[in-house]
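Hey, I was hoping to borrow your eyes for a little while. I've dropped the whole record in just underneath, so have a look:

——
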Amino acid sequence: MIGFLIFSSLVSIAYYLYSSYISIFCFKQPQQSDLSYHPPVSILKPLCGLDVGAYEKLSSFCQQAYPTYQIIFGVRDDVDPAIAIVRRIIKDFPQLDIKLVIDDRIIGNNLKVSNLANIAPHARHDLLLISDSDIKVGSDYLQRIVQPMQNDQVGLVTCLYRSQATHPIAAFEALSISTDFHPSVLVARQLGWMKFAMGSSILIRRSVLKAMGGFPAIADHLADDFMLGNLTAKLGFQVTLSDYVVDHTLETSTFIDLVEHQTRWNRCTRASNFSGYLGLFFSHGVALSLMVVILMQGAREGWAVLGFVLAARFLMAWTVGVRCLNDPIAAKLLVLVPLRDLLSFGLWVYGLMGDRIVWRGQTFRLLRGGKLEQPFQISSPITAPLAQVEVEHSRVS
């Protein structure tokens, strides 16, 4: 047992050092931008309620230094508070092609995907950009994220994100994003394992989306972003990581919320990619080396293993989170990385057990492949109820 844990700790050290090297390599060679390449883009924004700073985040997409693009905001409920914000944006940016679509039709258990399916028919362009409601971008965002699409083999472009926290608990949760999750994304990219996408930004060709079966193909999946990337790769297209890093906000305010959120993410990853989830075991070097110390009863060799693991772990956290992503949370809370890692390991173990997740106040059962099922639902979701559709626009060019 001790031998296996020592070996696993050494694998963790190798992973930490490789991730540090890869991150420097990736960010050292910025993506070249061809300012003459600017294909028209339709931005799909599914909304449900209001995020902190909603107007600022949503309006950042209206301030792009880009010649032709369309924004379609979609809500499912005609009393959703996001409607007032969208109408204000339409009024404030009359020169842009902006639409608001209100449609309550449901095509599956993932209501966000139903929202996307309802607003997608209003998209006028061949490049579709899907972005979560809590994302904020700069004026050069569109110009940079479209660049990989010059290669016809690229079917989807996604990007990393930098977290902003509204509460200390949210900051503690966000610490693992730039110092743990994003390093794994960079390694996957380097090794050619980029077969997933992130909801922060998904730029996809309409033809690729159609070939995979459209939004109905992922309507019952929790990880809709993962599935869009996975299905794109299965069609033989490349999934590319942009060098643009967007900002997003975490609003976790209680430890229970943190556990539910991380459990949902862990169990979804396990259901969608079981072998990949098991492979994450070797990324928990702090917990593994701490067990070495305990089993060796505090022997110097055990402490040496822990010391080397911590050194490599801090190097990766600083290199990726602070140096490359310029994440203020990572810079401020870097010393707490080992503690956050121990919690992550406990939640990883917990994620191996059970199939229930809580999402937006509802309890679901996760089936094989990451599909959602409401275990206490008497009847299946209605797939085509009477829909109310309202469309507003400031300009249709």
